[in-house]
Amino acid sequence: RLGWRELSFNNESARIRVNQWTTHEQRRTKLGIPPSRRSNKINPSTVYREKATSIYRGMAGSLMECWNNDLLNGENEEEETQENKIRMALCRIACKSILIYYEKYMYKEPCRTSKRTENIFIQKILHGNETRCYENFRLRKTVFLDLSKDLTNKYGLKPTRGMSVYEELGMFLMICTHGAGNRLVQEIFQHLGETIHMHFHSVLKAIGKLARDIIQPHPSYNDGAGDHKPCNQRYLPFFKDCIGALDDTHVKARLPQGQEIPYIGCKGYPTQNILVVVDFNMCFTFAWAGWEGAAHDNCIFCETLHRPELNFSHPSGDKYYLVDAGYSHIKGYMAPYKGDNVRYHLAEFRRGKTRQLRAPNGRKEMFNYLHSSCRNIVERTFGVWKARWFILRDMSFYHIDTQRNIVLAAMAIHNYIRKKCKVDNAFQEAENERYVPRVDPDVERSTRVNVTNEENVENQGNNNIWMAIRDLIAQDIYDR
């Protein structure tokens, strides 16, 4: 009883304690001050505070009522002991409720407490060793700064009060080059997950605008201007009218359960199929991403030819693209010879223990060998592109439209690096024609052959001239 008296737990003291939980607006009302302009806004924490206050007031009243009844009725000692236990239990519940409320809504322990905040991480990289910038962002410092400037001045990327453009771009590159998750980027850059998500999509939107300008051919590509002609002199006598190479590639896709079936192709897992055209500088000049992995390459190709809104760079005159055996041999698109006993891919010519076994045999194989060597530019381009962007090998759980935009953004930055940076480790390695892309086998492109489609096209008799041109080139190669 002395302990309860020391608590002074009467109605007035309880009311004083409860008043400590009242909001600012309630105090203004008690003092007769008009409510502030923000009083109409509902604060979620205010709702919980009022609930806790109501519980606290109710418990105080119950305890006081039990106390008064105890004094009036003069109950025996055994009943007093039982009631004291109940009172103590109620008091513990009340105190625990107040403690939980305080820890959850009033005192929040900061999660991101590193001293490396407010651009410190990005500034240390930009003012540090060149290797550190390349390892973190796969870009040299000069390219990083130029890209930040162009995205700001031309494509609408703006800094915010708490984040610079350098930090926005750095987070985006960290996610794409290393496949870093949101929580890891939170720890590195000391920002909230919602902030990182918002700025990631802001940068993605700006780079999407850059992609529309940079993923396109030279205005005079049909005249062989720019890089739209073979660089190696051994190809020029035979493929002098070639302006690039066309091919497809597959990138892993993440879809909700039940929606992945159309995207599962021969690989056995969901992918998106991407049709691209590259020039002889290892730059993308056309890209159509987002196709289901089960879609056939030739089907996508035919759809591209009949979609004017895609602004596909069609060859004109005698110009053509090199394509592999999965596409039809039609005007403007030079395919290799096909057959069970006719080799095409470079790996097939490199097998064997002696030089004679690796060498091409006959006119068709000699044409195919040179055709494959020249078209290898697209394989090397894919190798550099996928090696730089780890997210292409293990796509995160974004919406499929966002995944498609990430693919295009990676291509845009790939072109930007190639055009802005004279010395890049990945490109220098791929300039060697013997370069073999170090690509995860899970994301290698499909090489499905659609012989029936080509035979149906060729049997129409409309491409006899184009087939004759291929025969003339093959004979010229064989004679030399």
Question: How would you portray this structure in words?
Answer:
Its main location: nucleus. The protein has helices at about 1-5, 10-20, 25-30, 45-75, 75-105, 120-125, 130-135, 140-155, 165-180, 180-190, 195-215, 235-240, 295-305, 345-350, 355-360, 360-390, 400-420, 425-430, 450-460, 465-480, and strands spanning about 240-250, 270-280, 285-290, 320, 335. By secondary structure, it is of the alpha/beta class. The chain has 3 domains: about 1-105, no CATH class; about 120-215, no CATH class; about 220-480, no CATH class. The protein has a 5-stranded mixed sheet, sandwiched between helices. The radius of gyration is 35 Å and the shape is elongated. The model is unreliable at about 1-25, about 35-45 and about 440-460 (pLDDT under 50).
How much is the radius of gyration in Å? Answer: 35 Å
Class by helix and strand content? alpha/beta
Portion in beta strands: 5-15%
Number of helices: 20
Shape: elongated
- In what order do the strands lie side by side in the largest sheet? 3-2-1-4-5
Strand-and-helix sequence, N→C? HHHHHHHHHHHHEEEHEEHHHHHHH
| Fraction of residues in H or I helices | 40-55%
Query: Alpha-carbon distance between the termini?
Result: 114 Å
Ranges with pLDDT <50 over ≥5 residues?
1-24, 37-44, 440-459
Main beta-sheet annotation: 5 strands, mixed
Number of strands: 5
Average pLDDT for all residues: 80
Q: How many structural domains?
A: 3
Summarize the structure.
By secondary structure, this protein is an alpha/beta fold. The chain has helices at about 1-5, 10-20, 25-30, 45-75, 75-105, 120-125, 130-135, 140-155, 165-180, 180-190, 195-215, 235-240, 295-305, 345-350, 355-360, 360-390, 400-420, 425-430, 450-460, 465-480, and strands at about 240-250, 270-280, 285-290, 320, 335.
